[in-house]
Amino acid sequence: MKQYTVAIVGATGAVGTQMLQCLEEQEFPVGELKLLASPRSAGKKVETPWGEVVIEAAAPECFDGVDIVLGAAEDDVAKALYPEAVHRGAVVVDNSHAFRLDEGVPLVVPEINAGDIASHHGIIANPNCATIIGLVPTWPLHQLAGVKRMIVSTYQAASGAGMPGMLELEAQIGAMGRGEEMPTPRAFAAQLASNLIPQIGGEKFEGFTSEEMKLQNEGRKIMHLPELRVNCTCVRVPVLRSHSESITLEFERDITPEQAREALAAAPGVKLVDDLEAESAHDRWPMPLDTSDQDLIYVGRVRRDISNPEALRGITFWCCGDQIRKGAATNAVQIAKLLTE
Amino acid sequence: MKQYTVAIVGATGAVGTQMLQCLEEQEFPVGELKLLASPRSAGKKVETPWGEVVIEAAAPECFDGVDIVLGAAEDDVAKALYPEAVHRGAVVVDNSHAFRLDEGVPLVVPEINAGDIASHHGIIANPNCATIIGLVPTWPLHQLAGVKRMIVSTYQAASGAGMPGMLELEAQIGAMGRGEEMPTPRAFAAQLASNLIPQIGGEKFEGFTSEEMKLQNEGRKIMHLPELRVNCTCVRVPVLRSHSESITLEFERDITPEQAREALAAAPGVKLVDDLEAESAHDRWPMPLDTSDQDLIYVGRVRRDISNPEALRGITFWCCGDQIRKGAATNAVQIAKLLTE
């Protein structure tokens, strides 16, 4: 079997570290591994399943001989480096926002539009975390009844702001628990512990934030639905690494909650947990704690949208998924894996 | 000025204790104060602005000579005791769910339907906390454009489960902060710290819970809108005492976000906090920490529902309010105050 030279950019961050673990878990045919990061981290040694790797400062020449780049760096790094990687013959799976909406750049959730990968010109974009987690369960329902409108309220974990976000929430909970003074918030605009912050991203369109518009703009591209309308409200919650979403869908055709549940139970990447009568709370509905550090999107609370004037044209549900894994690293490595098949 | 003999039932709980404080803050003309609770608390002494009061075990004869009862007890206590209180000539403002939907029992949010109080037959019901917090800002928008549909996702605080809920969340955060073993959850079905629990109340209708159906059933009665359709998802979040709600409204007539903001800024009981560009996070949008232990509903993130097929028929917003105060005690004392005027 062909072995690939793989480079992870942003290898020391929350997503980069997870990508390394996902390569092993998904049995990716790694021949040689390169770990790239900022100059600050260069020279550090990392034990990997493919031997000890010395972190290099990310630069164009690092990509010589690289087959696949997994990008876990910010937009500016992505814009500066990945065209250089492509120029040197690599294919880049990029988790940043830099190229997601560019023509000629497939934006891929493997459960939904794996076929789009074929049309790449060197860069394939990984969608935003909240987009992936919301769309994986929306897709099988769309296939049944044709989704035309989504109303989404998110409950997003600290990990969406990377390692600094998680460390800040842990430090705040630590201070509360020990009765110490609350450290000044830096990763977030305000204290997150025992609080909610109803803004993620800057203002983008009519008071909606960049994060809120991603679900519509990325969703349209991924599901090939240019007319899809999405109203999203993104809220940061004091949870470590699983995003949750309360989603209401409107459809072109009738769909019953039973049909929806059946489709979700059979859908790839989805685990249906929907039984209010279950003895254990873990079997009643998805919760962030139960969905952390695993790869599926858990879906529950599936019911008819009783507010929709057309009786069977709306479905409401609740879903949770690990933000660092399926929201980022897992999805990127899945795309990379498809490139090798 | 006439002075009233007031009894608080459930005086030792989170809401009962807050009612006592609200009586003082709202300068209620208390002549004599009676504090009633379970036999377990009987005999305890409480310092009040009206002197030291000895807690009595709640029983029908306690209501002899009482003018106004503030009820902060559970449904079963309410059903057993309040008809007895009415029989003895008292008017009861009840925070339980026992009588809310009964004919002849006004269900009142003073900012919305104070006029309904006049039709009481001894019992006036205080709505559910999430209902009050969601409807106070919905009402001025309804007056402008006629609301016909609400899609609501809640972010509900631990205090909704009373003092035991708050103590449990604090104990869990304490254990996390000190690195100790997590105590077994009792007030909630699962660990709430660093987690979300997407069920409040038992199953009521087509998979919606009792808590979720309250917003529709109580909302219809309070706003005199028997056709109002509400799709609500209730979620418990690790926040101490302020509920938050992400609300999308559909209207009969056109309404712009500017008109909505103007109406909210002028509405009684509402504080508009809606400026993504504000220097301080506290001036950008409402947060639970900023809205705890005060009486207003803070509203922000007011914007056009860009998913509504009719351009100006939808508004989306975010609101927060203290669950124990305006969600319960403050609203009840406001109703009682209107009874004296």
TrEMBL record, chains A, B:
GO biological-process terms attached to the record: 'de novo' L-methionine biosynthetic process; diaminopimelate biosynthetic process; isoleucine biosynthetic process; lysine biosynthetic process via diaminopimelate; threonine biosynthetic process
EC number(s) on file: 1.2.1.11
Residue numbers binding phosphate: R100
Catalysed transformations (reactions): L-aspartate 4-semialdehyde + phosphate + NADP(+) = 4-phospho-L-aspartate + NADPH + H(+)
Domain of life of the organism encoding this protein: Bacteria
Family annotation (HAMAP family): ASADH (MF_02121)
Assembly mode: Homodimer.
Name under which the protein is recorded: Aspartate-semialdehyde dehydrogenase
Organism: Collinsella tanakaei YIT 12063
